[in-house]
């Protein structure tokens, strides 16, 4: 099974990283800047594709990642299913023996969803009951489309993960409605906190920080109670819960650049991470990841003023891979999907 072999290779890579040599075991790739929804909590709001890579260019990146020993690649966006060659990219990564995952808003036609079955893990976003979800996404019909895709994936033998964004307006009763939906499909619900736009650090105030910490506390309270009440339906909140309990990834200890690589839609590498783009580099990935520029930004991970109370889940999961409990929780999601 690919997951077992990959786990062994990741463990070997983690030991190498602990000895002081970074390896981009995980790649977060925003394969397109295009999105058909206008979510209240999202900073990606483009109606026109701006410089998305060609298929051949994307293939070259996957080949480079393979040579760098990348073992997990997550396709995101924008809305990744709006990129018509996404199935081809998934197959290319699968052929390279990488674990593949993608997060979608569930709006795609079934014809496209059928082509995504090669992915190891598919996450479908669902933030609440129909009216709440459609309003949050500013997209009438978003809820029904997502449910149709979830139902198709289940009938096709997949176990997609239902992912929800925890916001200030999220109530415990709303979360229980989501649990009921997940239980009806015999799936798990993964809850993540609405992250700030880290790139807008010049406009952030102490009030923004206080509100973020308050949101962390509310999340911790609700997720602990939800997990106690629905232990089989609510996905393992650790190590994400540990990150938020510490006050964010900066306090927890960000190691994202030691174990991860962030790529934007045009193929540029985002330093230091996908959430905070202080510098975008285009060129040879190996030279970028191991060059002096990377070392400069590696010293900044978790220490830049914008990193305060960072709650970006992909980077938290990447950092947590360097801790044993983190490995178990991250792979738990993959194993449950197989």
Describe this structure in words.
The protein is an alpha/beta fold and 338 residues long. The protein has a single domain (2-337), classed as TIM Barrel, CATH 3.20.20.70. Helix content is 45%, strand content 13%. The chain has 15 helices and nine strands. The protein has helices spanning 2-18, 55-67, 86-95, 110-114, 130-137, 142-155, 172-184, 206-229, 240-245, 249-252, 256-259, 285-290, 292-298, 313-320, 324-337, and strands at residues 26-30, 72-76, 99-104, 121-125, 161-166, 189-193, 260-263, 269-272, 277-281. A seven-stranded parallel beta sheet has the order 6-5-4-3-2-1-7, sandwiched between helices. It has a two-stranded antiparallel ribbon with strand order 8-9. Helix 3 (86-95) links the parallel strand 2 (72-76) and strand 3. The protein is globular, with a radius of gyration of 19 Å. The model is unreliable at 45-49 (pLDDT under 50).
Show the helix and strand layout.
Elements (H helix, E strand, L loop, with lengths): L1 H17 L7 E5 L24 H13 L4 E5 L9 H10 L3 E6 L5 H5 L6 E5 L4 H8 L4 H14 L5 E6 L5 H13 L4 E5 L12 H24 L10 H6 L3 H4 L3 H4 E4 L5 E4 L4 E5 L3 H6 L1 H7 L14 H8 L3 H14 L1
Parallel strand pairs: 1-2, 1-7, 2-3, 3-4, 4-5, 5-6
Antiparallel strand pairs: 8-9
Helix pairs in contact: 2-3
């Amino acid at each position: 099974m690919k997951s077992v072999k990959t786990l062994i290779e990741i463990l070997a890579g983690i030991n190498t990283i602990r000895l002081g040599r970074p390896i981009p075991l995980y790649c977060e790739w925003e394969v397109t800047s295009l999105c058909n929804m206008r979510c209240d909590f999202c900073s990606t709001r483009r109606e026109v594709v701006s410089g998305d890579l060609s298929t051949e260019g994307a293939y070259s990146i996957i080949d480079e990642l393979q040579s760098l020993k990348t073992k997990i690649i997550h396709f995101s966006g924008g809305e990744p299913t709006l990129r018509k060659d996404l199935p081809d990219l998934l197959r290319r990564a699968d052929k390279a023996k990488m674990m593949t995952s993608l997060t979608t808003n569930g709006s795609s036609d079934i014809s496209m969803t059928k082509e995504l079955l090669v992915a190891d893990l598919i996450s479908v976003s669902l933030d609440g009951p129909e009216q709440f979800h459609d309003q949050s996404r500013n997209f009438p019909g978003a809820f029904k489309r997502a449910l149709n895709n979830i139902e198709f994936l289940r009938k096709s033998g997949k176990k997609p993960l239902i992912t929800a964004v925890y916001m200030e307006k999220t109530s415990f009763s709303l979360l229980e409605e989501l649990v009921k939906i997940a239980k009806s499909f015999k799936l798990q619900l993964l809850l993540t906190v609405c992250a700030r736009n880290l790139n807008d650090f010049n406009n952030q105030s102490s009030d923004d920080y206080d509100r973020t910490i308050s949101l962390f506390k509310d999340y911790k309270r609700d997720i602990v109670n939800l997990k106690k009440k629905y232990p089989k339906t609510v996905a393992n909140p650790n190590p994400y819960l540990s990150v938020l309990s510490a006050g964010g990834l900066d306090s927890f200890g960000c190691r994202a650049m030691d174990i991860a690589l962030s790529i934007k839609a045009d193929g540029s590498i985002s330093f230091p991470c996908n959430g905070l783009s202080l510098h975008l580099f285009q060129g040879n990935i190996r030279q970028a990841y191991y060059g002096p520029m990377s070392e400069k930004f590696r010293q900044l991970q978790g220490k830049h003023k914008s990193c305060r109370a960072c709650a970006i889940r992909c980077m938290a999961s990447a950092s947590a891979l360097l801790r044993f409990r983190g490995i178990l929780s991250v792979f738990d999601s993959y194993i449950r999907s197989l």
